[in-house]
Specification:
Radius of gyration: 36 Å
Oligomer: single chain
Low-confidence stretches: 18-77
Number of helices: 13
Distance between the termini: 104 Å
Order of helices and strands: HEEHHHHHHHHHHHH
Number of strands: 2
Shape: elongated
Mean pLDDT: 78
């Protein structure tokens, strides 16, 4: 009885390790011995598997079986990538309509229309946001003296309270930081100058830059039926050394000018700082690297995109210089800061010469 049970168990074990190969609708079992110790049982009659068990094993092991449970290779989809999806988004199409409307309304050639649209959008949208950013920065800087005085008083009160309650130095430090954060938040709310508001310019300017760039790319390449008719207009809408706005600038004039304009804006912003922190230095170097990377990138895109990038950088440089003007700052009611000067442009020129030309 025991020997019969052993034979049955070994038969089931051998059958469980069989390889099942699918040939049409037939399933062939190819048993094999697990080891030399099992060879003695190879001549014994094995117990056949039940049809349900055979079918289940076939489904588990046969990848070509219609009902197989084995993992299948994922089918490749024809879905567009993130870049194509973004270029085909609603904001980009609305920007295309804006560019076409501006060109048809003004009647200017496409190169002049691109420059004019860039100037109008940056003056109407980003310049007020830049002035608002300066207002927030000025208010935050004006609060630093009050924050320092309140921090000094709070440190004394926490020290006295800690001695009364027997707090450790770690607990005193925690209570000081906790209450100082609360006081600073209340001051920001009181003066309506939370530092996050100073980043509003970036959150508006960056999406606008992306939408305009992709819209010009679609118009230049004729990616849709509605833009194919305009592609011919852009092909003859250039000027000077870039007569065809649908082709890259082979002379590299616009890409190099773009890099120089971006680097000049970065250096003017860096010269304004009195004492730059380590993080600010890292960010300045990072932006310098981005400015250099934009040069070969602008040489590979249609000239319409490079022209927009160059126009946007030049307008941004002009706005940064305008925001240094004492008259303009008084007109926008920007609070005075430590870096303000009655002769800002002379100071920038002097600092630039002292840093790079001497």
């Amino acid at each position: 009885m025991r020997c019969r049970m052993m034979r049955q168990n070994m038969a089931r074990l051998v059958a469980a390790t069989c390889r099942h190969a699918c040939q049409g609708n037939r399933q062939i079992l190819q048993p094999r011995a697990l080891s030399i110790a099992h060879a003695a049982f190879s001549s014994e009659p094995s117990v056949p598997l039940k049809p349900a068990s055979v079918a289940l094993l076939s489904r588990l092991r046969c990848p070509t079986h219609p009902g197989s449970l084995a993992p299948r290779r994922a089918l490749s989809s024809n879905r567009p990538g993130w870049y194509e999806s973004m270029a085909d988004s609603t904001p980009v199409h609305l920007t295309e309509q804006l560019l076409v409307t501006m060109q048809q309304t003004t009647g200017l050639p496409w190169w002049a229309s691109i420059i004019g649209t860039t100037l109008a959008l940056r003056t109407v949208i980003t310049l007020p946001l830049g002035a608002y950013q300066m207002v927030i920065i000025g208010k935050v800087e004006a609060l630093q003296a009050e924050i320092a005085e309140l921090a000094k008083r709070l440190r004394y009160e926490v020290s006295v309270r800690g001695k009364q309650l027997g707090w450790s130095e770690k607990v005193c430090r925690y209570q000081f930081k906790k209450n100082l954060r609360r006081i600073v938040s209340e001051l920001y709310v009181r003066d309506n100058c939370h530092p996050f508001k100073a980043s509003l310019l970036v959150w508006v300017q960056l999406p606008m830059w992306v939408c305009l760039s992709l819209a010009l790319r679609n118009l230049s390449l004729g990616t849709s039926d509605s833009t194919q008719a305009l592609q011919g207009e852009l092909a003859v809408g250039g000027a000077l050394w870039f007569p065809d706005l649908t082709l890259p600038d082979s002379t590299w004039v616009m890409p190099v000018c773009l890099g120089l304009a971006n680097l000049l804006s970065v250096e003017i912003f860096a010269l304004r700082r009195l004492e730059a922190s380590k993080l600010q230095k890292y960010m300045t170097n990072f932006i310098r690297g981005i400015s250099l990377v934009m040069i070969p990138l602008a040489a590979t895109v249609p000239s319409s995109m490079a022209l927009y990038w160059l126009s946007s950088s030049c307008v941004g440089l002009f706005h940064n210089l305008l925001l240094r003007s004492p008259r303009f700052r008084r007109l926008c009611r920007i609070p005075p800061t430590r870096s303000d000067s009655d002769t800002p442009y002379r100071d920038i020129a002097t600092a630039f010469v002292a840093k790079y030309l001497k």
